[in-house]
Amino acid sequence: VQLVESGGGFVQAGGSLLLSCTASGNIAAIYTMGWHRQAPGKERELVASSNRNNSTNYADSVKGRFTISRDNGNKAVHLQMNRLKVEDTAVYYCLATYNDGGRFGRSWGQGTQVTVDS
User: Fold this and answer.
1) What's the mean per-residue pLDDT of the chain?
2) Nearest to 7 by CA among 87, 66, 86
3) Count of CB atoms situated within 10 Å of the CB of 99
4) Could you tell me the sign of the dihedral formed by the alpha carbons of 96, 99, 105, 110, in that order?
5) DSSP helix/strand/coil, 63
6) What is the model's pLDDT at position 63?
7) Rounded Cα gap, residues 8 and 93, in angstroms
8) What is the band of 76 on the pLDDT scale with cuts at 50, 70, 90?
9) Predicted pLDDT at 81
10) What is the rounded radius of gyration, in angstroms, for the C-alpha atoms of the chain?
11) pLDDT at residue 80, rounded to an integer
């Protein structure tokens, strides 16, 4: 299963970006799709996730600013990021857990850079 991300870039503080991630490959069912991020010198952390029932989970640092949404028909997940802060600067990775028809699997995207400038 491959995950392809798009939408990263450079933005001024207070601005917005939309990240998208689409899954492809041998997928019988996708369980959870979400976004993690890793800033230089820091560990990768959960930003937001969405399960099959569209229940969502957010890091405290992004609550009220970021919104995750799923498009199950297109095997996609989006992250709308508003009121961006300098501390949101990181590489953002898409993560999906799935069943390929026989086994549970987990895949990461290649990452997309988000840079927020003051």
Assistant:
1) 95
2) 66
3) 14
4) negative
5) coil
6) 98
7) 10
8) very high
9) 98
10) 14
11) 98
